[in-house]
Amino acid sequence: MSAALALATSLLWGLADFGGGLLTRRIPAATVVVVSQALAMAVLGAIVIATGGWSEWGPQLWFAVAAGVVGPIAMFSFYRALAQGPMGVVSPLASLAVLVPVGAGLALGERPGWLQAAGLVVALSGVVMAGGPELRGAPVQRQTVLLTLVAAFGFGAVLALIEHASATMTALFLALFVQRVCNVAVGGAALLAQTRRGVPALPGGGRPMVFAALPALAFVGLADVAANGTYMVATQTGPVTVAAVLASLYPLVTALAARGVLREQLRTVQATGAVLALAGTVLLATG
């Protein structure tokens, strides 16, 4: 049961990443973040009301507020990176979010085992190689790699914060709802600021294009929420290590979708770097 839920988590996260990256190639990233998170917020609000989640209100929700502030920055950076560079490189690099809880553990006095130490070396080697340092051809833009690493740090911080914001499934729904409210508020402010600077919030097709994309936007937002839920249940019904390893395979879903739908072709060094980044993530999660 736990393994199946963890695999479902990787599938949902992987497809949400692919869908978000694909949408960002037609719609501004800030618009994708705000609309998808607003749709997810509406659904989560209904779930909180139906389950009586308001009873879980307490000071621990400040962690959810913090996650809601960090989240839009991470998503905006991630979608921009997916729109600019090969998804087969960007998504595995974003899985380095696991470095955040590892770093927090080190700061608190924990010492990594040999698997984690090996994972750190392998993952960082993958970061360098995924940038495409070849003697011929154009490498992945440095800005794309930087955006991806910013997103990875943000995603790791969000997972850690949400973990502290909830202890039960009902509390998790409330925490995710509060996080999405803050996501929409922060993302909406960024979108407004862009508009005032003359950057259009809607593409050339305007509102009709956004309305046509609403089903896809809803899928991106709800798949992300569902993945959070399946992962939490997976860690509660089975070994956390197994759930973490299986859930960390989501970049493979994104890469396979990009190859199947977009026919992305990666150079050898980029593909090797992406695989190493993913392998390092699995080792870190296992350790």
UniProtKB/TrEMBL annotation:
Keyword DNA repair listed: no
Keywords from the UniProt entry: Membrane, Transmembrane, Transmembrane helix
Record's keyword annotation contains Membrane: yes
Gene3D superfamilies, per database record: 1.10.3730.20
PANTHER family reported in the protein's UniProt record: ACYL-MALONYL CONDENSING ENZYME-RELATED (PTHR22911)
Family: Belongs to the EamA transporter family.
Species the sequence originates in: Streptomyces gossypii
SUPFAM superfamilies (UniProt xref): Multidrug resistance efflux transporter EmrE
TM annotation in the entry: 6-23, 30-55, 61-82, 89-108, 114-132, 144-162, 168-192, 213-234, 240-262
Name under which the protein is recorded: DMT family transporter
Pfam families recorded: EamA
Domain EamA per the UniProt entry, residue ranges: 3-129, 145-285
